[in-house]
Design a protein that fits this description.
It contains 17 helices and eight strands. β7, α8 and β8 form a beta-alpha-beta unit. The longest helix has 25 residues.
Length: about 400
């Protein structure tokens, strides 16, 4: 929190210096001009409605003027004091102002984008206050970000073309504030890559864990939206038992590939510190082999060296070996990309970076909003749309 406060103070000094360097009270002058323009626009609309100018007595009058009232509007130039015209029947708002609107559209966009960039709701109010002169409360920030709920719903309901060749599945753990205290929930994520290398985050689902039922819910949702798996060549997973069972239910004909990064982590955690480097080196020789036959020979050497010391570890590795070596069936260009879930782990790094200042989410709806914003931003990035990984394109 101290770091955020320090950054806010530095930003406030920067804005002050910027205003002074551009003609002193240029913001004040712009604010005055905008106030006069919007007030005059309100009066013009009233005159057109009434059907005659002020003090005129022409016939065909459709209403009676009823003076003005003052209204504040928060804009990028600060708080505008607007004079809004009215008749006895209705009020006349300028075209740039909606009914009951207290903030300009660009200010509301600033609030929403600041929240989506990972700034805590209380700090969003301070940052916006530096630019506009009005400090926004945390409750106001939360209310404005609820406008994302419709976009989140549309994302979950969007149709998917059955054109994905590789599907990466993994989960990330997040903290949520509940009445009983802080709790952890799991965000299950699906990430697709086409044969030409273009990629997209396809879906996410909140759950209490990575059970078979939770993963089946996500996979069935993908299937209903159009990803029937007719063109799927491989599904890369983190080795979760619940996910493996769910895949056999929804996509039983698609070969699975277990992530070597997760497997290496499990292997290294199960050995003594003095054996760590040697075990790691021998295990790496399996997936770094020049082919499937060489990988099997590397496993036999690993088995010979370590079964007397770690029999349970070697037995588990032997059981998982078929799914760990699936990537060898594909072109050599793809081996490094297909043997891990690193492609989706990079997305999780961005999730953790954005959510770290929030400490934990206030409710599950806020989880969906921020996750959608992060993933949608990644999907809309220029390089994701127009640049395809050369390694996939060459293999295709």
């Amino acid at each position: 929190m101290r770091t955020v406060a320090a950054i806010t103070e530095q930003f406030q000094d920067f804005v002050r210096d910027l205003k002074e360097s551009f003609g002193g009270d240029v913001y004040g002058q712009a604010r005055g001009v905008l106030e006069k323009f919007l007030s005059a626009e309100s009066a013009r609309l009233r005159d057109r409605f009434v059907g005659c100018g002020r003090y005129a007595q022409e016939g065909g009058r459709r209403g009676q003027r009823n003076g003005f009232y003052f209204r504040d509007l928060v804009s990028r130039f600060g708080v505008l004091r607007l004079q809004v015209a009215r008749t006895r029947a209705q009020r006349f708002l300028p075209g740039a102002l909606a009914r009951f609107q207290r903030r300009a559209a660009e200010v509301m966009l600033l609030i929403r984008e600041a929240f989506l960039r990972g700034i805590a709701t209380r700090q969003v109010g301070r940052v916006v206050g530096i630019l506009t002169g009005e400090v926004v409360s945390a409750q106001t920030v939360s209310q404005l970000t609820r406008s994302l709920d419709g976009l989140v719903k549309a994302f979950h309901q969007a149709r998917l073309a059955d054109e994905w060749a590789y599907l990466f599945l993994d989960g990330v753990s997040l903290r949520v504030r509940r009445p009983s205290g802080r709790q952890r929930l799991q965000m299950l994520v699906a990430y697709g890559v086409r044969a030409d290398g273009s990629r997209r985050l396809l879906a996410f689902l909140r759950s209490r864990g990575e059970s078979q039922a939770a993963w089946e819910s996500l996979l069935q949702d993908l299937y209903r939206r159009g990803l029937e798996g007719k063109n799927l060549l491989l599904v890369v997973t983190d080795g979760c038992a619940g996910l493996a069972a769910a895949l056999q239910t929804v996509y039983p004909r698609v070969p699975p590939q277990r992530c070597w990064v997760h497997k290496m982590r499990n292997i290294c955690q199960a050995v003594r510190r003095r054996d760590h480097d040697a075990v790691k080196r021998d295990a790496q020789q399996i997936y770094q082999a020049t082919g499937l036959a060489a990988a099997r020979r590397a496993f036999l050497r690993f088995q010979w060296n370590w079964r007397p010391v770690y029999p349970a570890l070697v037995r588990r590795l032997e059981q998982d070996l078929p799914e760990l070596l699936t990537f060898f069936r594909f072109p050599r260009h793809l081996w490094r990309k297909l043997r891990t879930t690193n492609v989706i782990e990079r997305c999780f790094l961005e999730v953790r970076r954005r959510t770290r200042p929030m400490v934990c989410f206030v409710n599950v709806e806020s989880v969906d909003r921020i996750i959608y914003a992060i993933f949608n931003g990644m999907n809309e990035k220029h390089q994701w749309k127009n640049r395809t990984p050369r390694i996939f394109t060459q293999a295709a």
